[in-house]
Design goal:
By secondary structure, the protein is an all-alpha fold. Helices cover about 85% and strands about 0% of the residues.
Length: about 70
């Protein structure tokens, strides 16, 4: 998890929005595995927002899938 948080900070610093979105997604998945559901959902929502802004519909759908999985 620390690696993903560091990656997120670096991606933000260098302005890599796609990389930032991927880091958020990976953090969400890690939180999910740790059963930290509210943090996972927030990370997936952050990821989704960035992917949507970038026009990456396939990744938006992946985020939506993960969010739905959290709600079951």
């Amino acid at each position: 998890m620390e690696f993903y948080q560091q990656s997120l900070a670096i991606k933000r610093e260098i302005g890599d929005r796609r990389g930032e979105a991927k880091s958020w997604f990976n953090l969400g998945f890690t939180y999910y595995k740790l059963k930290r559901i509210s943090e996972a959902k927030e990370a997936f929502l952050q990821s989704r927002e960035l992917f949507q802004a970038l026009g990456l519909a396939g990744y938006v759908q992946k985020c939506d899938q993960e969010i739905r999985r959290l709600e079951t």
